[in-house]
Design a protein that fits this description.
- By secondary structure, the chain is α+β, with helices and mostly antiparallel strands.
- The protein folds into two domains: 66 residues, Winged helix-like DNA-binding domain superfamily/Winged helix DNA-binding domain (Arc Repressor Mutant, subunit A); 115 residues, Bira Bifunctional Protein, Domain 2 (BirA Bifunctional Protein, domain 2), CATH 3.30.930.10.
- It has a three-stranded mixed sheet. Strands 1-2 form a two-stranded antiparallel sheet. Strands 5-6 form a two-stranded antiparallel ribbon.
- Strand 5 and strand 6 form a beta hairpin.
- Helix 1 packs across helix 3, helix 1 crosses helix 4 and helix 2 crosses helix 3.
Length: 194
């Protein structure tokens, strides 16, 4: 994660924590953010501006500081990273409006030395890849197209088991943290509302 993005993730985490503080009406002072990150107040302001451009709803009050709207949940790498508690998966996230294929991009990033656990997410794919090399229809605004970069220490002929295990893990996580009940379609599709 780049230093700029890391700082913005920490700002969002701090603003979320501020929402839990009733005595300060959910505000976190610019000075507290500045001190906590070891950056200037001007740098904090620039990061806030950048976060707003990403879709975060952040209020500013000259005497109180900054407050994140409780309903502010844009879908981007800063939002996801600020909520993650994992050590590996999703520590690096690449978002794209459209890609040829998240699988191809994961392969490229893996060859370039990207970290294990890197997530590649696209709103659409022009050449999505299904099983046995089949084309996967991937229109925008309909699904979440994701690939994760792993370097498992297993034999290549056992790797196909990982896709099903990941689908089950995703379905269980969605069930735990939301009211929807997903299902898994062999080998690795997680379906909601089907």
């Amino acid at each position: 994660m780049e230093p700029r993005e890391a700082a913005e993730v920490e700002i969002i985490k701090s603003l979320r924590a501020g929402l839990l503080s009733p005595d300060e009406q959910g505000y976190t002072s610019g000075q507290r953010l500045s001190d906590g990150l070891g950056i200037s107040r001007t740098a904090v302001w620039k990061h806030i501006k950048s976060l707003r451009r990403m879709g975060f709803e952040i209020e500013a009050s000259p005497s109180k500081g900054y407050r994140l709207s409780p309903s502010s949940h844009p879908f981007n790498s800063v939002e996801i990273s600020s909520l993650l508690t994992t050590g590996t998966i999703g520590r690096n996230i690449f978002f794209y409006d459209t890609l040829e294929s998240t699988n191809r991009k994961a392969f490229e990033l893996g060859r370039a030395g990207c970290d294990e656990g890197t997530a590649i997410i696209a709103d659409s794919q022009s050449h999505g890849k299904g099983r046995i090399g089949r084309q996967w229809l991937s229109p925008p605004g309909v699904n979440l197209y994701t690939s994760l970069l792993f370097r498992p220490s297993i034999r290549p002929q056992e790797a196909h088991n990982l896709t099903f295990l990941m689908a089950v893990a995703v379905a269980e996580a969605v069930s735990l943290f939301s009211p929807v009940k997903p299902s898994v379609k062999w080998p690795n599709d997680v379906l909601i509302g089907h």
